[in-house]
Amino acid sequence: MTTPETTSFAGIRRFSARFPLASRILERLLLSLLLLFAVSVMIFGGIEALPGDFASTYLGQSATPEAVARIRSELGLDQSIVTRYVDWLGGAMTGDFGNSWASGQSVGEQIGKRLGNSLFLAFFAAIVAVPLAVGLGLLAVRFRNKLPDKLINILSLAAVSLPEFFVGYLLILIFVVTYGAAVFPSTVYDSMSLLDRLNAIVLPVATLVLVVLAHMMRMTRAAIIQVMSSAYMETAELKGLGALRAIIKHAAPNALAPIINVVALNLAYLIVGVVVVEVVFVYPGMGQYMVDAVTVRDLPVVQACGLIFAAIYIGLNMTADILAILANPRLRHPR
Amino acid sequence: MTNRPPLQNGLSRRNFLASTAAAGFAVTASGLFMPEDALADTPKTGGNLKLGLKGGAATDALDPALASGSVMFVVNHCWGDTLVESDPLTGDPLPGLAESWTASDDASVWTFKIRKDVVFHDGSKMTVADAVATLKRHSDEASKSGALGLLKSITGIEEKAGDLVITLDQGNADLPLLLTDYHLVVQPNGGIDAPNTAIGTGPYKLDNFEAGVRSTFTKNENDWRDDRGHVDSVEIIVMNDNTARIAALSSGQVHYINFVEPKTVKLLERAPTVQILQTSGKGFYSFLMHCDTAPFDNNDLRLALKYAIDRQAILDRVVGGYGTLGNDYPVNSNYALAPEGIEQRAYDPDKAAFHFKKSGHDGSVLLRTSDAAFPGAVDAAVLFQESAKKAGIEIDVKREPADGYWSNVWNVKPFCASYWGGRPTQDLRYATSYLSSADWNDTRFKRDDFDKMLLTARAELDDAKRKAIYQDMAVIVRDEGGLILPVFNDYLNAGSKSLKGYVHDIGNDISNGYIASRVWLDA
């Protein structure tokens, strides 16, 4: 006998057997939604646990008990945490993140601008860093244990060992203070032309490239070296392929999965983890926006920023997974 | 409600709330108040003035009632004017949008004559009604204005026979200085309909405002005074990172930066294009003891700790010499009617040991500190610990987290590090934290006779009599209060050499917020 549950279960099984890739993606999407939900609960709880709420933090010295009470009731802070969370969730579900408590501006509108700036910076850092890292990784393998390999290794390790703010300060000292060759501060604003914007972000992009380069480069190198020891690479060499050609045609495709993973991780970092670089270069990105909001417990802004960060992180990781599955057919059929 | 924003944010609302009065326009037609280097040449017009300032955030709003932090302090003074301004050297009230004023004999009813020749940036005429509406908006009980606390004693604001008349619940000789607060810029109809438009009567018109990022202004061609607003345009860039500001200044990208750290001053001085701008102020760094909590309820113990601190060491090593010694009362010579001739208390391990023994206290005392309290507060606490040890007094130093320091430690724990920004007058200084009923009585100093002296001085229009009362009050706080005040810190800023006419204003930092209207650029 078949109950409805088992039929639908069997249906899922059949679907998953016929469209292995689609079903894996669907599964991950559902999981992501769950994760986002959990993240929003955690941020809400976290802000709640911080000492001082918005009313008292924002009013600072002019905080009389009546003023605090008035702001609390105005913003609904006097209601229970569950009520407030459900209210917020209801708005967020329909795409309404509300207004910032501090400035009264629409959160969505402000985030739009800041997120645009963050993505702009991350995009240019990525289009420089990713090809550069993979290329250098390939080169390092080609000249494994020879001078180029060692040079690449030492330099990239040195760059990653320095804290990012220090790399930033070094670049400022050299290119701004000493030689006056680069634009500083990197503040971008609405009325700026694209060329001016690109000019402004040269130094932060350079800093970010230096910070993420080594990680991706070394992962590329390690993955390819692992593949190089396999039998088919020996065959490639025996049939007379040049070293670089063998690496690019035969080794690289098989080493793709781990490289994609590390690239995705670094891309996520470039968008969500660069608040320090933003501060050093006076760049108006998302990170600074969120930190400002946390300082005064501006919950709607913090929530929205947190969700967007989480969504970007989850999205990039999911993309990496899917690409890895595409690159490696064996992953499509889990047992 | 006792929450204070951390100092790292730049000048917080706390510094400014009541602190902005003692300022005003130095650049008078006669050049009377101008500093030496400014006397040398006359203002040049033109140029784009760029300021790199710490103390702005994405949460800033243009509504002057909500302004807090250094950036909005300067922004407000670019586009708006207050009724009264203050003299940068003496702190006395000077005419602003109010051209003159008179007080009733008991100083409880004040009549202000408002200028008639002033237009707002939108071309409409500024009237007495606008001034009345502005003050009403900020003093309304439901207002969120940062100036609400200052205006509490006001019972009536009205237009009478073409003048602005303010009635107080008790006499206050300092009322004009209260109206210098930077929140109280006059807006069309008080800003009730449109608080965020930044339309005022100031020397510059706002072009563009991105909270926490950048603001731009152009010169107001219809400015009602011709002795200010020398540049064509002003650009304020929010730079919260200390090193970024220094890099921007030394590479010539900005003309002025605020909050230079004492330890970097010597290095910055070496840059050929940079001048250090050091201004004496009214703010101080301190350690606070609760007079009503054991063991600090014993005056001998309090005296022991006051003698056990090496003020000179803290001045030299914590603020790098950029300040002046404190004497355990919260007022210095930058206040009008400041006390004179009170003996400077010095480090004296013998006296400290004597009073400590007399207090009968046994064991150590716990001092809480944090970098949030003031820059270098942890170092200062350790210096205090060392100097006290020589007097046989054990101080345990406990480092508290910066986040939440103002709500969990300050004004809660019996012995901790703290700072205060300046206040326009001695009256406000004492009323904020030494009146028995004050919310921020952070040393729990509660004495009826002291309260009475404060109220008597407040209504006293005879300066000599007032000064005598303030002198007595200072001595009481110094010898019997819970305040240990090692140093008054100077404001440390820096500018490019091409920046001229900077006025060292004792009222507050950044030339009391008036930098953009006072300086000019020498190409």
Largest sheet of chain B: 7 strands, mixed
Quote the average pLDDT of chain A.
Answer: 84
Report helical residue fraction of chain B. Answer: 25-40%
Look at the structure and give the mean pLDDT of chain B.
88
Label the overall shape of chain A.
flat
CATH class of the largest domain in chain B: Alpha Beta
Distance between the termini of chain B: 49 Å
The number of helical runs of chain B is 17
CATH level-3 fold name of one domain in chain A = MetI-like fold
Kindly state the number of beta strands of chain B: 21
Under the CATH scheme, the architecture of the largest domain in chain B is 3-Layer(aba) Sandwich
Protein name (chain A): ABC transporter permease
Family (chain A): Belongs to the binding-protein-dependent transport system permease family.
Membrane topology (chain A): Multi-pass membrane protein
Pfam families (chain A): BPD_transp_1, BPD_transp_1_N
Architecture overview:
The complex is a heterodimer of chains A (335) and B (523). Chain A is mainly alpha-helical. In chain A, 77% of the residues lie in helices and 0% in strands. The model of chain A has no long low-confidence stretch (mean pLDDT 84). Chain B has 523 residues and is of the alpha+beta class. Chain B has 2 domains: 13-235 and 491-521, 3-Layer(aba) Sandwich (D-Maltodextrin-Binding Protein, domain 2), CATH 3.40.190.10; 284-489, Dipeptide-binding Protein, Domain 3 (Dipeptide-binding Protein, domain 3, Roll). Chain B is 27% helix and 20% strand. In chain B, the strands form 6 sheets. In chain B, strands 8-9-10-1-11-19-12 form a 7-stranded mixed beta sheet, sandwiched between helices. In chain B, strands 4-5-7-6 form a 4-stranded antiparallel beta sheet, with helices on one face. In chain B, a hairpin with a 5-residue loop joins strand 4 and strand 5. In chain B, helix 8 runs antiparallel to helix 10 and helix 14 (448-459) packs antiparallel against helix 15 (463-480). Residues 1-39 of chain B have low confidence and may be disordered. At the A-B interface, helix 3, helix 4, helix 8 and helix 14 of A face helix 6 of B. Chain A: It holds the Pfam family BPD_transp_1. Chain A: It is a multi-pass membrane protein. Chain A: Keywords: Cell membrane, Membrane, Transmembrane, Transmembrane helix, Transport. Chain A: The chain crosses the membrane at residues 29-47, 119-139, 151-178, 198-216, 255-281, 301-327.
